[in-house]
Design a protein that fits this description.
Blueprint: H1 3-40, H2 56-66, H3 77-93, E1 103-106, E2 109-112, H4 122-130, H5 133-143, H6 147-178, H7 183-192, H8 201-214, H9 226-229, H10 239-264, H11 279-301, H12 307-336
Antiparallel strand pairs: 1-2
Helix pairs in contact: 1-2, 1-10, 1-11, 2-10, 3-5, 3-10, 5-6, 6-7, 6-8, 6-12, 8-10, 8-12, 10-11
Length: 338
């Protein structure tokens, strides 16, 4: 096997492994959420399918596979079918630039624990890919030919555009400290210095809030708004098409938790990673699970924003704070020479 073929095979295998991790992460994030919310609300949660309810995600998947798929008679069918794919696919391919560890030996070959750890525009890749998901939601609302779905799609457009500005600005302070757009370099910068969560605490909070809005999580779940819009943009979807929307939200929770952990919590860095490279993915998964737990805790605690307050919060509070954080980081670098 020549070097080029070996590299292509390595990328394919690593891509498949990351996709499987994301899909398993999606399945068990739903289980994690249901059990955690049940604990908050003094309930039991799923406990019938398998020991401690661990097979509940499998049972839900089988149910959705065999459910009848309905397409409204006056829907724009091509766009209706395309929308769930446009929502789900970006959530997985974001993981292409997240580093899972340093180099490790595998069957006598030295490999990077990540698909593309050292892509020098990794942050730009994340910003460009995550912005695609909004098209799927808007298309779903428009193509369904349903007023409730259309309202959900319009709300989503306004919300995502508003909060993406704060999200994009929150990427800048870690980039400035690391001096690179590569996520691998940002992790190395935290190994040499300290987790950016400590000096960039306000930025990390703004980033986390913007991520909640980006993935339509409570208290920013206005595009879905079950109590007022039936189910929002996916009102007319059923079966596996609905499952793809469901998957898109939870995989994006998982992938954005990985990005947050990489930017502010040291990513795969931890004790003995240099000696035992396979500890890197374990540390990153632990940090992802903690971030997911915080998202679920917020959902079980806070009420949904009223829509006008949601927009005001994005434009009048979050965006100015994100801008101030960038200026303060620049001052901190220039004064302390970080």
């Amino acid at each position: 096997m020549n070097e080029t073929t070996g590299m292509i095979l390595e990328w394919v295998i690593k891509g498949a492994v990351v996709a499987v991790i994301c899909l398993i992460g999606f399945a068990y994030t739903t289980y994690y959420e249901r059990r955690f919310l049940a604990r908050i609300q003094v309930r039991i949660g799923p406990n019938r399918a398998g020991p401690w309810g661990l097979l509940q995600p499998v049972a839900d998947g089988i149910k959705l596979i065999f459910k009848e798929e309905l397409v409204p008679d006056k829907a724009y069918k091509f766009a209706f079918m395309l929308a769930p794919v446009l929502t789900m696919a970006p959530a997985i391919i974001v993981m292409g630039v997240v580093p899972w560890g340093t180099q490790a030996n595998f069957f006598g070959r030295t490999i990077e624990l990540g698909i593309s750890n050292n892509l020098n525009v990794g942050i730009l890749y994340i910003l460009s890919v995550t912005s695609i998901a909004v098209y799927g939601i808007v298309l779903a609302g428009w193509a369904s030919n349903n007023k409730y779905a259309m309202l959900g799609g319009l709300r989503s457009t306004a919300q995502m555009i508003s909060y993406e500005l704060a999200l994009g600005l929150s990427f800048l302070p870690p980039i400035m400290l690391a001096g690179s757009l590569s996520l691998g370099d940002i992790v190395k910068g935290q190994q040499d210095f300290l987790w950016y969560f400590i000096p960039l605490l306000p930025t990390s909070i703004v980033f986390f809030i913007a991520v909640l809005a980006e993935v339509n999580r409570s208290p920013f779940d206005m595009p879905e708004a079950e109590q007022e819009l039936v189910a929002g943009y996916h009102t007319e979807y059923s079966g596996m098409k609905f499952a793809l929307f469901f998957m898109g939200e939870y995989v994006k929770m998982f992938s954005m938790s990985a990005v947050f952990s990489t930017l502010f919590l040291g990513g795969f860095a931890g004790p003995f990673v240099e000696q035992v490279p396979w500890l890197g993915p374990v540390y990153l998964l632990i940090k992802i699970i903690i971030c997911l737990g915080l998202m679920i805790w917020i959902r079980g605690t806070l009420p949904r924003f009223r829509y006008d307050r949601l927009m005001k919060f994005g434009w009048k509070i979050l965006l100015p704070i994100a801008l101030i954080n960038v200026v303060l980081t620049a001052l901190m670098i220039s004064i302390f020479g970080l």
